[in-house]
Amino acid sequence: MILENIGLALQSLVANKMRALLTMLGIIIGIMSIIAIMIIGDALSATVSDELAMLGADNIMVGITERDPDNDEQDEFALMGSWSITGRRPTPEDLISDQMIEDMRHYFGEDILGIALSRTLANSVQVRDLELYANVHAIGANPDYFASGGGMMGMGNMILTDGRLIDNEDLAQNAMVAVVSDSLVARMFPDYVDPIGQQVRLFLHNSIEIYTIIGVYTIAQQSGFVQVGPPGHDNAPTNLYIPLTTASHGILHRDRWQSITIVAAPHRNVHDLTDEIQAFFDILYENNEFWRASSMNMASLLDTIAVMMSSISLAIAFIAGISLLVGGIGVMNIMLVSVTERTREIGTRKALGAKNYHIRFQFVIESLIVALCGGIIGMILGVVIGGLAANLFGVPLVISPGVIVGSMLFSMAIGVFFGIYPANRAAKLDPIEALRYE
Amino acid sequence: MLELTNIVKKYFIGEPNELTVLKGLNIKIAEGEFVAIVGQSGSGKSTLMNIMGALDRPTEGDYTLAGVEVAKMKDGQLSEIRNQKIGFVFQTFNLIPRTTALSNVALPLFYMGVSKRKRYKKAKELLKLVEMDDRMDHMPNELSGGQKQRVAIARSLINDPAIILADEPTGALDSKTGDLVMDIFTKINRQQKKTVIIITHNPELAQQTDRIITLSDGQIISDTPSPGGQSRENAGEASMHASRPDTAAEVCV
Ligand SMILES: Nc1ncnc2c1ncn2[C@@H]1O[C@H](COP(=O)(O)OP(=O)(O)OP(=O)(O)O)[C@@H](O)[C@H]1O
Ligand SMILES: [Mg+2]
Question: What's the pTM?
Fold first, then answer.
């Protein structure tokens, strides 16, 4: 009985292809959007989590943020964005000092594995040698910076492929040494000479500095989402690391920091330590009217991103929901038309002995099939869109069977829900009236 | 087999107006009879047939079909009666569109809950009977009117009904095709011993039956053995409500 009803429903779908397609449009769009956002959302959060975890799950970042007089809970994203909404800039006295860092190191002792410090010497400058050049961001870093995986906004999983990293001795000597990327080496030394010990000329805005290469790093399998510069573009600026002290040379307040990254010891819970560090800095900044130090860790950044993504998903899901509602009403409408068109058929069926439930069942099945077909088309389109988006972001396409099965069940539920009213109308038709219907 | 007693059917059109379409009919039809119901348009033939076919309930009166009291049954029970005891043939054929001839014929058994294999086996037999077995995979829109009606007759037989009711089965057909359809009804009646009741406006076709019941304005004005029909033992007994035989010819349209 079920099979034959399905067969009949499919027949009438095929007989009215255009009408069926238009009917299903709402459901197609709805299911398509839901599947697409789920696939994109899953892929992105998986990738973002991986990336951020690689950046250092044990890292705690402390940065200077402006006090919000209305809100004690500071927005953690202030750390990553502009310094001030009001246009106020922190004075050197407001920044984190070497003294504070030293005190903190004493206070927390074994709990802190290291403190990553970096100072940008110049963004988007060039290393040049006759006609050869490469774009770089010149960044001064201390040894802990590399241990932390490049600080909060660093390069992620950088891997040293040749030579060594910057050590404390380089810092002590203000050495003119640099750790450069493999892509810089490829651009500057096309003849495959050993880059270690080679010199590069860094063209700053009003001077040229010469550095000796001590190490080469590569960025392992970076995906598209958390990435510096566009992928595949071999002239994208890469980071060129020099000793922190060298980068700080000539800077007036070289003992002041806008942000620092603390690497938690493995035995400490990062969240707890973050709270303790926050408490530590809250005391130090107690009397600062405009500025405070905010601490955060990768885990909470992940949480924040998850919240952000789920609210985006929610918004799209809401639109998809409305589309599904419209789609459901469309199905109901077409089923009502179908019932009217087939009044005579219903009368005949009843004359031949069909009971009300037979008729009801027939139309509910038909409605379910219409909705399910819409759902399947929507699912296919959703997977295609999700796949394209995943491709665009450079993340792997993950399709969870739960999403597929769930959306199919959901579209069937829509079919049943919106099919019940027309089906009841059909079932309740008086056989004589129905047979006489012109 | 079938007994209608004091059947009254009223339609209520608006509060005060009631229209009495059938005015106390008494009809008794025995098993194996071949009956024609004739009468002017609007005389109540279809209304009567709807009641006999358990599609409708009389306003007053009793109706017994194959020993079952039908007049006061609920909708679901009426469905069962239609499904098991009655075979319908309609003027407009009423085949289910986009469904093969075979599936159309098998449909009543589907509602009876008979297995697919048995349904189709029986349907094929009946299509053979009406000489439509070579068209069983055709859709209704691929068949001519006469062919459709033959399929419809096969369908009306599939549940092995107590009575076959046909409301102007030849009304939409040309006279030659109509004769052909009429022959099938005669064959069913003679060979299968089925009770067949047809409504017709065609006096010639009515002559081919055994008994002619004439309605006028909701009343039986004559109920006589058909002059052209094959004489039967029970015809006289079944026609006990017959009015004067001499009026039959003049009322017959
Ligand atoms: N649902 C209804 N409501 C009101 N009046 C009705 C209804 N159905 C039928 N009638 C009336 O009942 C009367 C008998 O109708 P019926 O269809 O039985 O006639 P008939 O003898 O079959 O006529 P025809 O030969 O034209 O088919 C007609 O006057 C018709 O208008
Ligand atoms: Mg009629």
Answer: 0.70
